[in-house]
Design a protein that fits this description.
2 copies of one chain form a homodimer.
Chain A (H helix, E strand, L loop, with lengths): L1 E2 H12 L5 E3 L6 E4 L4 E10 L10 H19 L2 E12 L4 H17 L3 E10 L4 E9 L15 E4 L10 H4 L4 H7 L5 E6 L4 H11 L4 E5 L7 H5 L4 H10 L6 E5 L20 E4 L3 E5 L5 E4 L7 E2 L1
Parallel strand pairs in A: 5-6, 10-13
Antiparallel strand pairs in A: 2-3, 4-7, 5-7, 8-11, 8-12, 9-11, 10-12, 13-14
Helix pairs in contact in A: 2-3, 2-5
C-alpha cells in the first residue's frame, strides 16, 4: 500500500523537469511559461469498457490517453507543451499496472515533446478512467474545421479502418504533419479522424457551411488490418469509412498553390481521396463510375 | 435521444463567447489568447460515490467539479481564465440531469470569471465522472507550499469541519483572497485545505523543508455544521481538524510587514490559529496550556 501523498511525491521525479516549468507536480497547481501568445487546449478521457478493454496492456492505455489528445492538437496545427493527467483508478488496481500505465503516459509525452506537469489521482469502485489535458501552442495559423470550400480536394495522412485490431492503442499522433500542413497556404481545413471518416467528414462539411463531398472508393487508403479481417473488398472499404479511432488527419486543400515538396507527409497522402462539393450529402464514386449515396455512419455516444 | 454531435453544437451556444477565445467549443481543440506570460494549470475529477452521492443535485455536482479546481488556482494566487470539461456519463443518465449538471458548471464558471472553451463527452456503464481542467494566470507572484519558515503564524480564510453536511457542494473558491494574499509581502506559503487541516498542514510543512507546527485549539474556526453534528466540543474540533473538503486557504506569514488593511479577508482570518516550529511534528495547544501531539489525519486515497 502507498499513500496518495507518497505516490504524488514520486511522480515529480518520475515525470522529470523541463524548461519552462516554474512550479511542477506537487503544489496546488502547476505554473508554466507560455510558449506563445496563444494556447491550444483539449481534454479527452479514455474509459475502461469504452476506449479500451480491461485486459489491454496498461502502458498502451496510458499511451492512448495521451495520444488521443496530441492528435487533437495536431489537427489544429499545434505543438504540445504540457499535459495534466487525472487518474481515477479501480480500488483494486494493482501497483504494477499503475506503474505500467504511468510509463505509457511518460513515453507518449516524450515522443510528443511535452511534459506532465500536474493532475490528480483518486480511487473508486468503478472502471479505470484516465483523463489527459493537453496544452500546446500554434507556431503559425490554426487549422480549423470550418475552412473547406467547394472544389477543394480531400486528403488523409494515413490508412483507415480496422483500428480495433491494435492501431487504436498504438497510433502515433500526426503532430509533425499537422504543423507542416498549417504552413501550406493551399490547406483550407483539417480535423482528426476519430469517429470514422464519413462521420468526421460530415462534421467538417457542416462546420464549413453545409457542403457535400464525393469520395473515390479506389483512392481510400485501407489499413492492412482492415483488409485482413474483412470478408471482401467492399467490407474492407466499409471498415475504412466507418470504424474510427484512426487518428490520422483529414484535410481539404485548394488546387493551387501546390504543397511544398518534402516534409513529413507519406507519399500517398498527396493523392486526393475525393473532393468537396457545393451540394450537401456524401457520395461514394466507385471505380466503374457508379455513384452511391452514403450516410455519415461512425461512432457516436448516444445521449438520452 | 440526442447525438453527441448535436449535443456538442448546442454547448457552444450554451457556454457562450468570451474575449480572448479565438476558437471555442466545436473544433478539435480550443485556441485562446494567453492573459500573461505564465499559465497556471490544474485538473481534478469529481466521481460519483467518492466526491458526491448519486442523489446529490446535479447542478451542485457541476458546481463542485469547477470549484475544486478554482480553489486550487486560488491557492496559487492565480485568477481563472479557461475551463475544459470532460463528462463521462452513465448510459442511463437523464437528459434533465445532464442539463442541470451543465447549468451548475456554467454558473460556477461565471462566478469565477472564466469560460468553458472545450472538453469531451462519453457514456459508459459506470458512475458519473466529471473532470474539469482550469487554466489561469498569475497577476503577481505565485503562492507556493514550500515557503513557510519557523516563527511564521498560521491562518485560514474560513471555518473548518462538517463539510459533508452541504459545504463540500456549495463552497465558494477563495479566488479574491488568494490573489490578495499573493500581494502581501509577509505571506510565505499557502495551500487549499481539501484533505483536512492536519493532513494539508503536514504537507505544507514537509514541502517547506520538514518543519512542525503548534495549533491553538481555541483559535481554530469551526463551521456551524460541524458543531451542530458533533457530540461535544472536542468532537467538533476533531471534525474541523480532519474532515477535509473545506476549500478554504491555509497560509503562513511572517510577523512583519503587517497585512494591508481592507481587502477580501474575513476579520477572523487575520487571527493566527497557530505557528510554524523548527521542530517537526504537529502539536495541539489546548486552552489550559496542555500540549497534545496529533497525527496528520485526513482523507487520502489508498493505493495498492
Amino acid at each position: 500500500m502507498a499513500s496518495e501523498r507518497a505516490f504524488t511525491r514520486g511522480l515529480r521525479r518520475f515525470f522529470g523537469a523541463a524548461r519552462g516549468v516554474t512550479i511542477g507536480i506537487g503544489d496546488d497547481a502547476a505554473v508554466v511559461r507560455n510558449a506563445a501568445a496563444n494556447a491550444v487546449l483539449c481534454c479527452d478521457p479514455v474509459v475502461e469498457g469504452v476506449h479500451f478493454r480491461r485486459g489491454d496492456p496498461p502502458d498502451l492505455v496510458g499511451r492512448k490517453a495521451v495520444n488521443r489528445n496530441l492528435s487533437d492538437l495536431a489537427a489544429m496545427g499545434a505543438l504540445a507543451d504540457w499535459l495534466l493527467v487525472s487518474l481515477v483508478l479501480p480500488k483494486d488496481y494493482p501497483a504494477r499496472s499503475r506503474q505500467r500505465l504511468l510509463r505509457g503516459i511518460r513515453s507518449a509525452a516524450r515522443a510528443g515533446r511535452c511534459t506532465v506537469v500536474g493532475g490528480d489521482v483518486a480511487t473508486h469502485r468503478g472502471p479505470l478512467v484516465v483523463t489527459v489535458t493537453a496544452v500546446g501552442h500554434l507556431p503559425g495559423r490554426a487549422l480549423v474545421r470550418s475552412g473547406a470550400r467547394a472544389g477543394d480536394t480531400l486528403h488523409v495522412t494515413g490508412p483507415l479502418g480496422g483500428s480495433l485490431h491494435g492501431h487504436h492503442l498504438r497510433f502515433r499522433p500526426a503532430l509533425r504533419e499537422g504543423a507542416w500542413l498549417a504552413r501550406q497556404r493551399a490547406v483550407t481545413a483539417a480535423m482528426d479522424v476519430s469517429d470514422g471518416l464519413l462521420l468526421d467528414l460530415a462534421t467538417l462539411l457542416l462546420a464549413s457551411g453545409g457542403l457535400g463531398a464525393e469520395l473515390d472508393a479506389a483512392a481510400i487508403p485501407i489499413r492492412a488490418a482492415a483488409r485482413r479481417h474483412a470478408r471482401n473488398a467492399a467490407d474492407a472499404l466499409r471498415h475504412a469509412l466507418g470504424d474510427g479511432e484512426d487518428h490520422v488527419l483529414l484535410w481539404t486543400q485548394r488546387p493551387r498553390p501546390r504543397l511544398a515538396p518534402g516534409g513529413p507527409l507519406a507519399a500517398t497522402a498527396r493523392t486526393p481521396i475525393g473532393r468537396v462539393t457545393a451540394r450537401p450529402g456524401l457520395w461514394l464514386v466507385h471505380a466503374d463510375g457508379r455513384r452511391e449515396r452514403v450516410a455519415p455512419a461512425g461512432f457516436e455516444h448516444r445521449l438520452r
